Amino acid sequence: MMARxxxxxxxxxxxTERPPRPAPGRPYAWLRRHRRWLVxxxxxxxxxxxxxxxxxxxxxxxxxxxxxxYVATATDYLHEHRIRYNPEHPPLGKLLIALGVAVADPHYxxxxxGTQGDVGRHLLYESGNDPWxxxxxxxxxxxxxxxxxxLVAFAFARELTGTxxxxxxxxxYAFSPDLIAHGSLATLDVPAAGFVxxxxxxxxxxRRRPGLYLPLAGAALGAAVATKMSALPAVPVLTVLAxxxxxxxxxxxxxxxxxxxxxxxxxxxxxxxxxGRHTDIGPERDMHPTGARRDTSPRREREAPGSGGPNTGxxxxxxxPHTDGPGTSDDGRERDTLPTGGPLTRTGRARRVLSALTAxxxxxxxTARSALADAPADRRREVLPALAGAVVVGLVxxxxxxxxxxxxxxxxxxxxxxxxxxxxxxxxxxVDLLPVPGAYRAGMRVQFGxxxxxxxxxLFGHLYTGSLWYYLPAALLVKTPLGxxxxxxAGAVAVVAVRRLRPAAPYVLLxxxxxxxxxxxxxxxxxxxxxxxxxxxxxxxxxxxPRPGRRWTGAAAAALVLxxxxxxxxxxxxxxxxxxxxxxxxxxxxxxxxxxxxxxGQDLGRLADRxxxxxxxRVWLVxxxxxxxxYYGIHAADPRTVAPQRVHxxxxxxxxxxxxxxxxxxxxxxxxxPAGDVGHSISLFQR
Length: 687
Known about the structure:
By secondary structure, the chain is mainly α. Helix content is 52%, strand content 4%. It has 25 helices and 6 strands. A 4-stranded mixed sheet has the order 3-4-6-5. Strands 1-2 form a two-stranded antiparallel sheet. α3 (35-60) packs parallel to α8 and α19 packs antiparallel against α22 (551-570). The longest helix has 34 residues, at 375-408. The relative contact order is 0.11.
C-alpha cells in the first residue's frame, strides 16, 4: 500500500516536472551579463554612423532647390517676426531651422523685394554671407531631429518585439539612404514624417497610461501638421487610434474588476476576456535575453483532458496565454495570446448569455438579465471616454498649430509677398471653416492652387504631363534598399498575421497607409520625399520578423540588415540619387526618375572641383538648382542660346534637365560623347 502511494507520487512528480534547460554557452552568457551596456552601445554606434553620413553630406552639398526658401523664411522670422514668405508650409519646421540660422547670424536685408526664391538667393549669395556656413548651421537642427526620430523608431519596435527587434529597426533606419539624404537638408519632409511616427508611438503607449500619453501624442500630431500640410490626412486616423487606445486602457490590467466594462459577475480580478490573464505587448516588461519578454507572473498548471499531466497547449480548447511578453514560453515555443484589451467575441458573449438564460431559476438568471439591461450603460461608459481621448488629441494638436504661428508673430500679422490664389467651391468653404490661423488657411489655398497646375513628371524614361497614381509606389521600389523592402513587407504581414502582434497593426500600418494613399492623389510627381514616412514605418514593421524560437528568422533578418548597410555605404556620400541594386544602383537612377530623386541642384560645389581637371576648356552649362555657379568659380555659357555648331568643349547638363531634354538640347546631347558624371546628378559630355 505504502509502496503504491510512493509510486503514484513519483509518477505525478515526474509528469509535472519540466526537462532541465540546457546551460547557455559562454558567448550567450557573456551577452546576457553585459546586455545593459551592450544595447546602448550598439544603438549609439548606429546613430553615430548616421550622424557622420548626414554631417558629411551637409558639408559637401550646395543648396538644393527648396532650401534657400526655407532658410530665408526662417531668417525673416528671426528679424522681422512676420508671416510673409512661404505661406504654403506652416512655420514650425522653419522655426526649427531658425535655431541653426540664429547661430550662423547671417546679414539680412528686410527691404529687399522679390519672390521667396529671389530672397533666398539674395541672402546666400548677394548679402556678403558665406553660403557654406549658413547652410551647415541651418541643416544641423534637422540632422539632430532625424537622429531623435531614430530613437523613437527604436523605442517603438522594442516595445513591440523586444531589444533584438529594436536594433533591427534602428539599423534599417540608420542606413536608409532616403532618410540620410533628406535628413541632412534644411527641408521639412523628415520632420513631418518623424512627428507622425512619434504620435503613433505615443498613442500605442497610451494603451497603458492614456492620461500621460494622449496629450503628448496630440502635441506630436500638431507638430506634424504645423510643419507640413501634407500631414493633415493623418489627423482623423490618429484621433481614431486615440479612442482605440482609451478603450484598450479601460479593458487592460491594473483596473479593479468593477471598473472594467467587460468584467462579469463571475470573473476573477486580473482575468482576461476568456478567463486567462490579460496579455499585452508593452514597454514595462522584463526582457528575455533572446529578445522575448520574460514571463514573471505565476502560471497555473492545467491538466489536459484525459491525462494526468499538465496541459502542453496542444489542445486548441486550452491555450495557456503568456502573461507578459510576445507569446513565447520558457522553452522558446510560441504561445497563443489574446490581443491587448480585445473585446469579447460575439460568439463567446452569446454563449454565456444563453447559458445564463437557460439555467434554472435563481440568482444566476437574474444576474444575466440585469447584465443585459445594463449593456447600453456599459457601452456609454466605454464610448464617452474614448471620444474624450480623441477630442484631447485633436485639441492639443490644434493648440500646437496656433502656438507655432504665435511664436513667429503674437499679433498674427499676415502680409504675403506673393498673391494668394482664390479657392472656390466646396474646398474653399471647408478651408474657411477650419479653426486655424488665417495664414494657415491661405497656405492651404496656395497648396490647392499648386495641385491644379499641370506639372511634368518622369518615370522609367517616360516624360508625361500630369500625374500617375502609381508614381510614388514605383519610385519607392527604386529608392528603398532591397533589404528594407523585404524585411518591411514581411514585418507588415507578420504584424497582421501573428495574434500577439495584431493589436499594434493599426498603429504601425494605418497612418503611413493613409498618408501614402493621399500622396498618390497629388499632382506633383517630384520624389519619394513626399513619402518618407514609408521607410520609417517599414523599419518599425521589420522588427516583427525575428521570431523567438525560430532561429532562421533572426539569421535572415541579420543578413538583410547587413545587405542594406552595404548597399547604403556604397553610395556614400551621394545619397540623394540612390537606387537599389535591382534597378542598377545610383549611376542609373537618372534614367528612371528625376528631380529630388536624383538631382536637386546639390552638386554645384562638386562640379566646381571636377572642372579644375579641364583647365582652359570651354564650359557650356545647363543647371537646374538654386545655387549661383559663378560664386563657386564656374564660368560657363548656356548652349541653348547659340547655334549648335558653335558649341564646342565640355557640355554640362543637370540630370533633371536631361530627363526632359527636347529640341536643341536633346540634339546637342545626342551628338556629344559622354564624359562621366558628378555625384550621379550632373552629366558631362565632350563636344
